[in-house]
Amino acid sequence: MACDMKYKWILFDADETLFEFHAFPALVNIGVKYGFEFSQQDFAEYENINQPLWLKYQQQQLTVAQLKNKRFEHLTEKFGVDTQVLNQEFSEQMSRLSPTFNGTVATLEHLHGKVKMGIITNGFSAMQQPRLEFTQTAKFFDLLVISEEVGVPKPHPAIFSFAFQQIQNQMPTEKSQILMVGDSLSADIAGGNEFGIDTCWLNRHQICASQDIQPTFEIQEISDLVNLVKVA
Description:
Elements: E1 9-12, H1 23-34, H2 40-58, H3 64-70, H4 76-79, H5 83-94, H6 104-111, E2 116-121, H7 125-134, E3 143-146, H8 147-150, H9 157-170, E4 178-182, H10 185-195, E5 198-202, E6 217-219, H11 225-228
Parallel strand pairs: 1-2, 1-4, 2-3, 4-5, 5-6
Helix pairs in contact: 1-5, 5-7
């Protein structure tokens, strides 16, 4: 391991941090398969239901099973298939419709071999490994932690504790040697802060930070991470 890095480990969020998330074309494609023309208005209605459900899941007010069911309930009649099928179809579509953001691969290539890297995601299991394979990024990561498999989502400290234990199984590491990088203040940054590791907010859209949640670092592009983690 190179000695010119501040950290031994960098943990990344997945969706909207490393990978884009194109839900609309995924649902359009599913609609075509089942003979329904999925419109922008349909997508707006879906998001009005979907986004609050994800927040409730993050706050542990919903289980994974409830989230999977409720987010597609209103579409079952339109598509003519049940929520279980829609979830499966959606995961298959999204594993191919979540390309890396510009700069992601170059950044991962630069860091690879200098620091160990992992992913902590609240996304569902079905699409994670297929997406890594499809984007040819699996080779960069030594750890993949999925909330659905751990049983708790970010920002709950238990998922960070689980990741920390997996890290210890690979190499002795102090909390001060771990950095969490993500786009969500409420999940990635708040969770990392509470667990006691450094955090880096990827703020692509230059949103005003919450006074209650302060990251250790803030960057606007994933490529900014390269210089940030070097020892000054």
